[in-house]
Amino acid sequence: MNEIIRISNLTKDYGEGRGIFDINLTVNKGEVFGLVGINGSGKTTLIRHLMGFLKPQKGYTSIMDKDSWRYASELKKHVGYIPGEIAFPEVKRGIDFFKLQAEYLGIRDFSRANELIQRFNLDADAKLKRMSKGMKQKSAIVNAFMANSDIILLDEGSTGLDPLMQSELTNLVKEEKQKGKTIFMSSHIFNELESSCDRVAFLKNGRIIDIVDMNTIRGNESVKEIKIEFIGESDFSNFLSRPFNIIREQTEFNQATILIPDKDINELFNVLQNMNVRFITQKPRTLEAYFKDKYNDAEAV
Ligand SMILES: Nc1ncnc2c1ncn2[C@@H]1O[C@H](COP(=O)(O)OP(=O)(O)OP(=O)(O)O)[C@@H](O)[C@H]1O
């Protein structure tokens, strides 16, 4: 089975424009799929539907062809999950929590859990109530990955981790991908998504405004994104009539942004030498830059 996650016409309307609206996407086996959006854009609401904690108002979500809401308790045994807000059961220490979880999931071999505890440098004997934010997050990571589940959902999985531990989590995600696991993760950290995801969806006001294939961002190093501001309107409009791939025009500033293959750069300078240019800059083609452009361009909904 290639398709692991399906989200179909999913809507949860909390009123006053809050919630998620008409979300459609699928995630295939072995894919790492990222979800990015500003605070309140709907990431947690979407992931909680996938886990079967919330009942859709319209549409549905399914994992391995099983409706998330109907099969919620079964799915919880097969999906590793880091919630956006971590709440522990009423047990004393980290290790008690892992043992309880192992019992629930039928895990007898504790070696994977021990390996993760060591890897994330976690004191599993510490009292859960006294743990720092980062320690709680590490406990949630151990809990999500200890069962070797084939499907893993991370809602801001690296929240509260220091930069070293953040990159450890990214490495873990990459290793799991190598093993053929399917991972769905939300994050505010572009680096984290950039280095591990195959595709990334952008959420704005509860709607998907774009889904980008990371290969189109990573693989485009021979194409540059260049922004030029002209001193006069006439040079600006003259430039717009030239055969460049213009991806953005900001008329109020006489600015044009183009995508240009390296081999055509001389042609660009030939055209510009007879024009009055205020500045010319090269924009890095990062996920963050792509996201900001999309976010600004998307109509308010
Ligand atoms: N139970 C609820 N009742 C009413 N409104 C809600 C409820 N849950 C979420 N919302 C609203 O839905 C919107 C999406 O919230 P959600 O928590 O999914 O966003 P998010 O992208 O995960 O945000 P963050 O990055 O801050 O975690 C927000 O406007 C939020 O206030």
Automatic annotation (TrEMBL):
- SMART domains, alphabetically? AAA
Protein name in UniProt: ABC transporter ATP-binding protein
Q: Which UniProt keyword terms apply here?
A: ATP-binding, Nucleotide-binding, Transport
- A Pfam family the protein falls into: ABC_tran
Q: Which residue numbers delimit the ABC transporter domain?
A: 5-230
Molecular function GO labels: ATP binding; ATP hydrolysis activity
